[in-house]
Design a protein that fits this description.
heterodimer, B: about 500 residues, Rossmann fold, six-stranded mixed beta sheet, 16 helices, binds adenosine-5'-triphosphate, binds magnesium ion
Chain lengths: ~300, ~500
């Protein structure tokens, strides 16, 4: 069993599991740094996974489909921003509404377009970089644009949040919007930016899952949007810490799959519980009190 | 100075309304370039509102505002800032989780294709800190610095933006005497450099010392203006209050014919906060029927004394005795610790009462109105949230609520911070009344005059312990010179000389 964990196959597995978590967690982080809670990461992933499947089945071109799905997710983000920022509707209620709406829409359209309640026909995955794809074992992961982007995002989001004017202003709006306003910062505009980035990143996470599985199926996101939010909290809203939190979740998910395949002595239910139990233990034991941006979730 | 072409800001019949309430009523006012212009008036008179119009936070409902010769109607502070106007607000507008550097540059960042330029900007800020002797470390987080340092950060923000017209809204109310002197030096440096300063204050001595011209607001109207050469403080205070009765401080102290009992005693108490020793074996006591005044420079352990009494901090050595039930508390940070700013007066008062289990709209309204009339709170609507009240009126509400609880022991921190002269006198009167009712009062203030006026005994706090203690006989003066000498002595003790 130890050998199967130390193998390259396992590493590739972890890299793959890591990707949707990190995209989702960074998505949530950009939104919350601007003071808007978005618990609809799950919904954005579902609708984007379906959207990618739908567009490739309709148009055939994967890159065009990615582009169209991003437009779809951005449209939903504008709607989310309209409700939470402009109309100041409670962010949790709006988020729950979006989750239900998006899951329902995907299911309805699947039934309507493909006459199936479980999955779409097989789709074209997003092509990778063929040079890297040819590396043995880990090639598929190493040549995957979205996986590569997820790793670049660790440094990119750290850089954007802490070294650029945009990041400084976005954070100020999430910490103390009144103070930001007295300095002439357009508070609602920055909140909108945060929500839009959130939509785009979570959409990439959803698309990746559909592409990786070569179809969209009902329930395929399987709570990853929520785990991403947990990872953001464990990572204390800091890109590098979030990376480690996501890596932990990915490790345990990989472990769960490996244990299931290698037929461990533990019942599967126990193995499946692992990531969640670990989360609680980590929260109690190591992380201590976490404090979100001071004006997180407060409408302005 | 009075030459017309030297007018830098002019209000022409400016009116500002909140709903039906007129906060500024057709005000016409000229401010001359390179002068220190003071605006004074009771709590709720409309001073902050008038300044917020100039800074683009509010826009006027009527009238014209003319800055440097051209009519303006700022839609946001950004527009005011780009006209070189800067404002130091009555309440700090800082981001606690940011460093001083981040707070200073926010909104006026120097960037290189979106990336913040740090090297030259840091140097520029450090040079400003050195030039004005602000003594700040730009990598400290705001949550780690003292109140007077926070204020210096606000000043630094103005300097960084090259502000030429500087609005200070009650800048000295949070400072101790030593810090006030430092602040005055900075103001004078600004004037020497050609800047124009608008200073809002409740303290007449500051006007006497600094102002070139004074404007008095009363209930939203401009009622009086005078140049410094014709300034008479008697006349000025009458103009501020208007045709109202002046509250006189009765020095009537009832003889203590009750048995005085010990209510609070600190016996060699040490307290650590974040592993730093904040109270260092401090000893003092407060008995019933006395006001014990603690004075000192902010940050020498005052807030830790309060946190220890209310149980928010644990004692690491020594012993604390509290021989009374509940303690009434007027905290230093009235917005953060003293109230729920989204709630109205009645809700804030009822929340603190133990025996109230349910509220009705009616008793919330009645409670609000009771406090409003007893403490002469000025506000636009009796059910407005506390956040919309002017600073001094918020303070009156909290003070009123805590006295109303009728607890044996009261802890008052800066009880008249931001409160106008007449209301201060009223609050002083109530403090003496409470003392005469055999209450024990711990008074913590950086205002030495206030401490002298009210206390029966005084302790000077320095580096977490009471370094000097004076009985009443030491500060019962027969002439002004004695008083002056005593104040100099205490002032020195406060900064640890002697
Ligand atoms: N946003 C607001 N909404 C409603 N009423 C307001 C608002 N801002 C101020 N007011 C009211 O306008 C009046 C003037 O307030 P302002 O803050 O200008 O007073 P001030 O002269 O600065 O008083 P202080 O000395 O206590 O700071 C007050 O009665 C206040 O309740
Ligand atoms: Mg004010």
């Amino acid at each position: 069993m130890i050998e199967s964990i130390l193998s390259l196959t396992f590493l590739a597995q972890v890299l793959r599991m890591f990707t949707p978590y990190y995209l989702g967690a960074s998505a949530a982080n950009f939104s919350e740094r601007g003071g808007v809670i978005n618990i609809a990461i799950e919904g954005f992933m579902i609708i984007s996974a379906f959207g990618y499947a739908f567009f490739t089945l309709t148009f055939g071109n994967p890159f065009l489909s990615v582009f169209m799905t991003l437009i779809l997710a951005t449209a939903f983000s504008f709607l989310y921003a309209l409700l939470t920022i402009k109309l100041k509707i409670n962010q949790i209620v709006t988020g729950v509404g979006f989750n239900l709406l998006m899951a329902g829409t995907a299911k309805f359209l699947m039934m309507f377009v493909y006459q199936s309640s479980s999955n779409t026909p097989a789709i074209q995955p997003i092509p990778g970089i063929s040079l890297l794809n040819s590396i043995p074992v880990i090639g598929k992961a190493a040549g995957d644009y979205i996986i590569i982007f997820a790793f670049v995002l660790i440094f990119l989001s750290q850089f954007i949040l802490f070294r650029t004017r945009f990041g400084l202003r976005l954070r100020s709006v999430g910490e103390n919007p009144e103070a930001a306003e007295t300095l002439g910062i357009k508070v609602r505009l920055y909140k909108l930016y945060g929500v839009l980035i959130c939509g785009v990143l979570s959409s990439l996470g959803g698309m990746w899952l559909a592409s990786n599985q070569s179809s969209f199926s009902d329930g395929m996101i399987a709570g990853r949007g929520y785990i991403a939010i947990a990872a953001m909290i464990i990572g204390k809203w800091k890109p590098v810490n979030i990376f480690f939190a996501c890596l932990m979740f990915a490790f345990f998910e990989g472990l769960e799959i490996t244990l299931q395949i290698s037929g461990s002595f533990l019942p599967t239910q126990i193995v499946q519980m692992l990531p969640y139990v670990i989360t609680i233990l980590v929260l109690i034991g190591f992380i201590g009190k976490t404090s979100p941006p001071a004006a997180d979730g407060v409408p302005y | 100075m009075d030459s017309e072409n030297n007018v830098i800001v002019e209000y022409r019949e400016v009116t500002k309304k909140f709903g039906n309430f007129t906060a500024n009523d057709s005000i016409s006012l000229k401010i001359y370039g390179n002068t220190i212009h003071s605006v004074i008036g009771e709590n709720g008179a409309g001073k902050s509102t008038l300044m917020k119009i100039l800074f683009g936070i509010y826009s006027q409902d009527g009238g014209e505002l003319i800055v440097k010769g051209k009519p303006v109607k700022f839609k946001s502070p950004l527009e005011a800032i780009s006209d070189n106007i800067g404002m130091l607000h009555q309440h700090f507008e800082l981001i606690e989780d940011f460093t001083i550097f981040e707070n200073v540059i926010l909104g006026s960042e120097i960037t290189n294709t979106g990336v913040i330029e740090t090297k030259d900007t840091r140097k520029r800020i450090i040079d400003l800190i050195d030039k004005y002797k602000l003594g700040l470390d730009i990598d400290n987080k705001i949550s780690e610095v003292s109140i007077s340092e926070k204020q210096k950060v606000e000043i630094l923000k103005l300097l960084f933006r090259n502000s030429e017209i500087l609005i200070f809204d009650e800048p000295t109310s949070v400072l101790s005497p030593v810090e006030v002197d430092e602040f005055f030096k900075i103001i004078r440096m600004f004037k020497a450099e050609g800047k124009t300063i608008i200073l809002i204050t409740h303290k007449l001595n500051e006007i006497k010392e600094l102002a070139d011209r004074v404007s008095v607001l009363r209930k939203g109207k401009l009622v009086y203006e005078v140049n410094s050469n014709e300034l008479d403080l008697e006349v000025l205070s009458r103009e501020i209050i208007g045709p109202m009765e002046v509250t006189h401080l009765t020095d009537e102290r009832a003889g203590t014919d009750y048995d005085s009992e010990l209510l609070l005693s600190f016996d060699s108490v040490s307290v650590k906060k974040d592993n730093v020793l904040k109270l260092n074996g401090i000893s003092f006591h407060v008995s019933s029927g006395e006001v014990y005044g603690i004075c000192g420079v902010e940050g020498n352990g005052q807030s830790e004394i309060v946190d220890t009494i209310i149980g928010a901090l644990k004692i690491s050595a020594g012993s604390l005795k509290l021989n009374t039930g509940d303690v009434s508390l007027v905290p230093d940070d009235r917005i953060g610790k003293g109230m729920i700013k989204e709630f109205n007066i009645g809700e804030n008062v009822l929340l603190r009462e133990k025996n109230v289990t349910h509220f009705t709209k009616k008793n919330i309204k009645e409670t609000s109105e009771k406090v409003i009339s007893e403490y002469d709170v000025r506000l636009s609507d009796s059910l407005s949230p506390l956040a919309s009240l002017s600073g001094g009126n918020q303070q009156k509400v909290i003070f009123g609520r805590e006295t109303g609880l009728d607890n044996k022991m009261m802890v008052l921190v800066h009880p008249t911070r931001g409160v106008d002269i007449n209301s201060s006198a009223f609050i002083y009167k109530i403090i003496i009344e409470q003392r005469n009712k055999n209450k024990g009062i711990l008074l913590i203030s950086s205002d030495l005059e206030e401490i002298l006026k009210l206390s029966d005994r005084i302790g000077v706090i320095f580096k977490g312990r009471i370094s000097q203690e004076y009985p009443k006989s030491d500060f019962t003066f027969s002439n002004d010179e004695d008083k002056h000498n005593f104040m100099v002595k205490v002032g020195k003790a406060m900064i640890g000389i002697e």
